[in-house]
Design a protein that fits this description.
The protein has 261 residues and is of the alpha/beta class. It contains ten helices and seven strands. The chain has a seven-stranded mixed beta sheet with strand order 3-2-1-4-5-6-7, sandwiched between helices.
């Protein structure tokens, strides 16, 4: 039976939001002379909205005093800003500003070596996701991955389940054979709505959030010498204190049992 590991990007591969996306957004706003900047607190709230363009629209809807023109002009300015922001973000990633989260490269390698299909599913732009993958897992492991599903590949973004359902369909696996790794409420809700087992590795903006459908919540996947902390749920850690492939198998089994009960 073929298993699949599907990873979110931001907050899962690297803690990208605070030192990556937020920085790139604010640099873009400054470059384009837009009359606002986002604080970390504001951005933390906006992360509940899936997609960068959608976050800008949500922010502007909350601030009607900011006039960026007609609806058509607004869409054009948002699209241009998001394109520039994505380019600035890739520059940050390529400069090594965003170190990988513990355990990601290890678990991806273990899964690939065991014959699992490995993919990434993110609301971020494809170029941004590919840059992070190249930095975190390296080109050789990226070449072995089964797919990357990113950006506007589906019209309804997280917390809608569409991107995870698309990933399962494209990978040719059933939803009961997929383990998702997420870090955010919207991402975890998307995995839950898709009926998929999911592990949450909390990140800077999400450590106080609730994840009621997650099988396992941990501080990170962990690595030898850098053990993970179990926050809640099934303990998917091995004897050395980090989440391994055997732990992900236990997550799948527990999710199936819960679904059948």
């Amino acid at each position: 039976m073929t298993r699949a590991l599907v990873l979110d990007c931001d907050g899962v591969l690297a803690d990208t939001e605070l030192d990556g996306h937020l920085v790139a957004f604010n640099r873009t706003f400054e470059e384009l002379d837009l009359p606002f900047r986002w604080t970390p607190e504001e951005y933390g709230e906006l992360l509940r909205v899936g997609g960068g363009k959608e976050r800008m629209k949500a922010y502007l809807a909350q601030h009607p005093e900011i006039d960026l023109g007609s609806p058509e002009q607004l869409d054009e300015r948002i699209a241009a800003a998001h394109k520039r922001k994505s380019a600035l973000y890739v520059e940050l990633v390529e400069a090594g500003a965003l170190p990988p989260r513990p355990g990601i490269a290890r678990v991806v390698g273990e899964a690939l070596d065991a014959g699992w299909l490995v993919a990434c599913a993110s609301t971020s732009a494809l170029a941004s996701v590919e840059a992070v993958l190249a930095s975190v897992v390296g080109p050789e492991q990226r070449a072995r991955m089964a797919g990357v599903f990113a950006g506007d590949v589906v019209p309804a973004k997280k917390p809608a389940p569409d991107i995870y359902l698309l990933a399962a369909a494209e990978l040719g696996v059933g939803i009961d054979d997929v383990v998702v790794i997420e870090d955010s409420q919207s991402g975890a809700a998307a995995a839950a709505a898709a009926g998929m087992a999911h592990v949450v590795t909390v990140s800077h903006f999400t450590h106080d959030d609730a994840f009621p459908a997650a099988t396992t919540i941990v501080s990170a996947l962990g690595d030898p010498g850098a053990p993970a902390t179990l926050v809640e749920g099934l303990d998917a850690r091995g004897p050395e204190g980090f989440v391994d492939l055997a732990g992900l198998e236990r997550v799948l089994e527990a999710h199936r049992a819960a679904a059948a009960s």
